[in-house]
Amino acid sequence: MMKYTTAMVTFEEIPTEVSLSISISNCQGRCAGCHSPELREDIGTELTDDKLDFLIETNRGVSCVLFLGEGKSIDSLKKAARRVRETHNLRVALYSGRDEMEDDLKMCFDYVKLGRYDARFGPINKVMTNQRLFFQDPEKGWRDITNLFWK
Ligand code: SF4
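Above: the input record for the complex with iron/sulfur cluster. Below: its predicted structure, written as tokens.
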């Protein structure tokens, strides 16, 4: 089961997309200087298939659904990502707080942000950041597109 706290349309988190950004709780990360400690808690509403469909259908015009966090159930996350692609024909993105990710999970997404939050290096829109955003180009494979945040 996956729970979420908020869902809103954003323009900057994935610079090339208009995203429906869904904040997922039960984060298993423990980044020093975590900017959203409430997302480590078991809070929010269950993100059922019906709820995911509703959120997408009431935010028509988005090109991508972004999961802000992995939660604690990787199977639920994969299932939700598949639903975004297959039922709604949208691109799908994940902000992970981990430094590395299993290939089979990564392949469920068009965009993946990797790297724990480290206050010494700042968030992804800072040139010194340790975080990276990757795009799965259908022809060329994974490409690091972090520099789009710095323009
Ligand atoms: S990934 Fe890190 S910064 Fe983000 S909510 Fe989890 S612990 Fe906090």
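Notes for the reader.
The first helix runs from residue 49 to 57.
The chain has a mean pLDDT of 96.
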